[in-house]
Amino acid sequence: MVSTRGSTAVSTAADLACWAVGHRPSADDLALADRALLDTVAVALASHAEPVHRVTAPLSEAARWAVAAHVLDFDDLHMPTTTHISSVCVSAALATGSGGPGYLAGAGVMARVGTLLGWRHYAAGWHATTTTGALAAAATGASAHGLDEDGTARALALAVPAAGGVQRAFGTDAKSLQVGLAVEAGLRAADLAAAGAGADTGAVDTWLTLLGGEPGPVSDDGPAVPDGLAVKIHPCCYALQRPIAAAASLRDQVDPATVDRIVVRALAGTTTPLIHHRPRTGLQGKFSLEYAVAAALLDEHAGFATFTDEAVLRPEAQRLLARVEVDLVPGGDWLLAGETEVDVHGSDGVRRAVLDLPPGSPRRPPTGAQLDRKLVDCLAGLDVSPADIDWSGAADLLRRLLPRPA
Fold first, then answer.
1. Cross-referenced Pfam families, in alphabetical order (predicted)?
2. pLDDT of 194-213, one tens digit each?
3. Rounded to the nearest 5 degrees, what angle is found at the Cα of 206, between the Cα atoms of 205 and 210?
């Protein structure tokens, strides 16, 4: 192996490969993989009518599934790394037939690479799901091929050329397509490594440094996915889950028609991906703090119907979002740093909500009722029940129920 760490004589790729090949999933790891499968496949199936499916013909099957899993922005999130682990790793595992163990190999690599990149990588504007996702898919593919540590390390290095993606894509088709491209590239890298392709594994260290990360040893103990996964309650950017929950708690106390002013206070870092301030489409609304707060006061539940073009363009929503003022305090090194405060000023005074953890976050897990509602909403109109979604049959469900690109 080529070293970029002075006297250690070990590359980050070698460390990651050692973990991926040597990890033996615990019962908790496998339970997390099963939950991720159910959540991700349900969300992917819910996307069956999304326009993006019309343009995915050039992509591989695995890439198309990743696009489907991510386009609604309803997929789970690894909070410490701000990465959508399961849209990448469930798609790669289903495409390769590697099941829960393959998912966990990729998910563990994705969490560890994301940790090395850190918050500054995301805050700089990178789409961390795609930068880390290419290497994660390579790890899942390597697991499916049964590659040893050397082969897995080469697969990771061969994924580096495609490990990119930026937040400027948020609110457009390119966001989900970037995830699909990362999955496709990672699995191709594993195929190349299995065929005997050589690579300088120190490329992973160089890539990490160029992207603002710090190459170094990775954690080889504890769960496959440290700190677990956050489950979304609303189909939009995770940075909106807390503001929506805070504003929604005031819905029964205010009349939106009489609202004069809404002030949202938060740490600046927690709003990093919220780049659309006057959205005109449903996709843009998924990354708009102003719209999300307005919609939370208008809609009984911020669900699929909230994030359509028609909903965003409602006169009452446009009127209300124009009254939102965002007061950002410097700081915040992850999406749930500090608290979110929402003050609603109306004719009868001011109503205030302050929230630290939204429903669905790892330290405030979703209730059974919340999960059931999500699954019912995702599978509505489809001849599928949650019991039908397992590692042996999920790929066939996706093939049968997602649109076939022309």
1. MmgE_PrpD_C (PF19305), MmgE_PrpD_N (PF03972)
2. 999 999 999 999 999 999 99
3. 120
**How far is residue 61's CA from residue 73's CA, in Å, rounded to a whole number?**
20
Q: Identify whether residues 249 and 213 lie together within a single domain.
A: no
Which are the contacts of 18, defined by CB distance < 8 A and separation ≥ 6? 149, 220
**CATH number of the domain residue 165 falls in:** 1.10.4100.10
pLDDT at 319 > cutoff 70: yes
* Domain range enclosing 298: 238-355
Q: Does one domain contain both 142 and 271?
A: no
The answer to whether residues 119 and 248 belong to one domain is: no
Residues 6+ apart with CB under 8 A from 104: 23, 25, 29, 30, 32, 33, 89, 224, 225
Question: What are the backbone dihedrals phi and psi of residue 144, each rounded to the nearest 5 degrees, phi first?
Answer: -65, -35
9 pLDDT tier (thresholds 50, 70, 90): low
Q: What kind and span of H or E run contains 296?
A: helix 289-298
321 and 297 share one domain: yes
Q: Which pTM value belongs to this model?
A: 0.94
The CATH number of whichever domain residue 347 belongs to comes to 3.30.1330.120
Ranges of H-type helices in 124-172: 128-145, 149-159
- Is residue 406 scored above 90 in pLDDT? no
pLDDT digits (tens, 9 = 90+) for 367-381: 999 999 999 999 999
| Mean of pLDDT values over 112-139 | 97
Asked whether residue 94 falls in the same domain as residue 117, the answer is yes
CA 200 to chain centre: 29
406 SS3 class? coil
* DSSP 3-state of 267: strand
Residues 311, 190: one domain? no
Cα dist from 105 to 16, 23, 138, 187, 380, whole Å:
10, 8, 10, 13, 32
Burial class of residue 293 in the structure, from the number of CB atoms within 10 Å of its CB (0-12 exposed, 13-18 middle, 19+ buried) = buried
How many domains are there within the chain?
Answer: 2
| Token duo for residue 145 | 């091929």
Q: What are phi and psi of 303, to 5 degrees?
A: -120, -155
